[in-house]
Amino acid sequence: MNKLNLDFNLVTEARQSAKVIADDIQGMIDLHTTVSVERTVLRLLGVDGIDDIERPLPNVIVDAVKEAGGLPMGLAYWMGNAMIHTNQTPQEIAEAVSKGDLDLMTIPQADLESIKAVVTKKAQETVAVIAQNRKDRDNFLETIGEGPKPYLYLIVATGNIYEDVLQAQAAAKQGADIIAVIRTTGQSLLDYVPFGPTTEGFGGTYATQENFRIMRKALDEVGEEVGRYIRLCNYCSGLCMPEIAAMGAFERLDVMLNDALYGILFRDINMQRTLVDQYFSRIINGFAGVIINTGEDNYLTTADAVEEAHTVLTSQFINEQFALNAGLPEEQMGLGHCFEMNPNIENGFLMELSQAQMARDIFPNAPLKYMPPTKYKTGNIYKGHVQDTLFNAVSIMTNQGLHLLGMLTEAIHTPFLQDRALSIENAKYVFNNMKDMGEEIEFKKDGMIQKRAQTVLTESVKMLKDIEEEGLTNSISQGKFAEVKRTMTSGKGLDGVVKKDAQYFNPFIELMLGGQ
Amino acid sequence: MSNQIDLTKVKPYGDTLNDGRMQFSFTLPVPAGDEADEAAKQLLTKMGIEEPAIVFSEDLGVGYTFFTAYGKCQHTVDYSTIDVPKVDIDIMDKYGVEDFIKEHIKRDVVIVGACSGTDAHTVGIDAIMNMKGFDGHYGLERYKGVEAVNLGSQVPNEELIAKAIELNADAIVVSQIVTQKDVHIMNLTNLVELLEAEGLREKLVVICGGPRISHELAKELGYDAGFGPKTYAEHVASFVVNQMVDRSLI
Prior knowledge:
Helix content of chain B: 25-40%
Shape of chain A: globular
Distance between the termini of chain B: 52 Å
Strand content of chain A: 5-15%
Structural class of chain A: alpha/beta
Oligomer: heterodimer
Distance between the termini of chain A: 29 Å
CATH architecture of the largest domain in chain B: 3-Layer(aba) Sandwich
Strand content of chain B: 15-25%
Helix content of chain A: 40-55%
Number of strands of chain B: 8
Largest interface: A-B, 37 and 29 residues
Order of helices and strands of chain B: EHEEHEHEHEHEHEH
Number of domains of chain A: 2
CATH class of the largest domain in chain B: Alpha Beta
Largest sheet of chain B: 5 strands, parallel
Radius of gyration of chain B: 23 Å
Shape of chain B: elongated
């Protein structure tokens, strides 16, 4: 499809530049591991639970190994060795370590090949569980079905998982296809994942494996009732990116926010840390059949949506390459963009339509994540509802994938039950009433809509060329994205990054890379 | 028409003066039906609404009912005696502020901004601090004579204060968007307490802002000023430079 008369040679050029950029970073990624990657390995090997002062066991073990200088070998090595030595399960070993009954670093070391064999066998069991979860999802989709695209994506954020369940089930009954449980503010900067069901959070609910399980069960139940599989979304970002991916894979989450660039720019997380974390998390998400969401839309809540539109496209190209490197297929790439122009701009709707169509044409197989207006919501709920209506119109006309519902009360409070209902009603009305509009219309040759997209693409190609020359990390340190500057050694979490030993291994990368 | 309005007894205007007509929308945790509508009516009556009419009601899917309703308000307010505390200064535009600094302060004014505590929503602080500003109003970074440092999101109060000391700041500007469970009140109070403990409170102009912040609330919490919605960089800048002169903080 080429409704905008785009020069697809430019698109090819852009992808080539993005590949060079991503491959350059991959070189750094391949040399390093992080505390969160190693905690994830432990979780995937079956370690869970907390010690008597509520520290998660994966943290207890990894911190002990790190302290003793053993991190470069990787936790698969130390755990595999302990499995041979003690003939116990990883969970039993972790409990013994946390009680001080066992020291992974001082027990005799078996030879590398037998350690690999033991750990890989255990890893295969986990991988089979995750593969089965994926089959279960496919089975649900085949038997009870799903809503049409764009999927209606709604957020719950009460802080209490049981209250979230009530709101999520209401939303599903009203027509939501995806429920995202917003995390409590600040969780992205915690270097551990809390444990158990939680009922206290600010602006959201803790992501814990138990909370995932509670919501999954609730959505499966309501899905049966309404005759649609309801997807569950959470936030695989921040300092525990790959751990959240693993927990999501265990509990059959379907959608995950998962974007290192977002963490670097907006959460000031160290870039080495989060790029290494992202790689492993995307491998897990890819294998688990999870649709990832990227955070490019956020650039335009900070910078100007008209002038900086090309930065979104640029980042989408780069994110696409990062995802491909981690074996995550196009069909699972929920690349982010948004409807955030100042509503007072003359013909702003035409530009929004142009950009949404451009993203559709350039990433034809990606379930694009389309974000609603937020920046220019004022508290005038009546106008807000109309802004959302225009956004809904663009979404259905350009066949977006994941449609985040705008709220008339954006900028006022976390949505009331009725706010969600009104928002869903609005979207369903527009989606039904304008269903095939996109199929029926063509854009005037060299008109405003075509020209706008061509301009944005041209600027993006140029920006990608600059980044290719400069390197991604230098470009970020110059503030090229969202006008935010970050450096290789600034930000949170750098102390959790180590260079891998030559004998380092992580059995899950090999077992999971390449999707199925 | 205006001469008919009695400002000592003001009530809502629907389509006729003093008809008292108001619009309501809310949800009750009961299933839709005649009983639900009656419950909504009774509630409105208790609120002092005469002739309540439920014009729309619908079940939200979980046995809760959403209502749109109208009714006549019986109450009035005395507008003539109202007194709202406001940031009481003349707002200068960007050039006015720049000239004011050149003339009265004669050095760079250092303003440190942050979205402090656990709040990750930088849209407000960015609108005030960043070069581009918001809605055609340039941010403080673009002001000549202002050194604006935006620390971004989730900045612990301790770190914010340390940065203010390091940069020898004249003013601290804090944005708070998340207000669930009054987390913003706790955080804003904590910042002032820390500043007082460090003996810095009187040496700095301290300002907070956000969609749920009023000047009155800010003063109560120990801030020099609070700015709500529709605030642009020039409001903050005008206040800071005036305070510096008035309080001899130059």
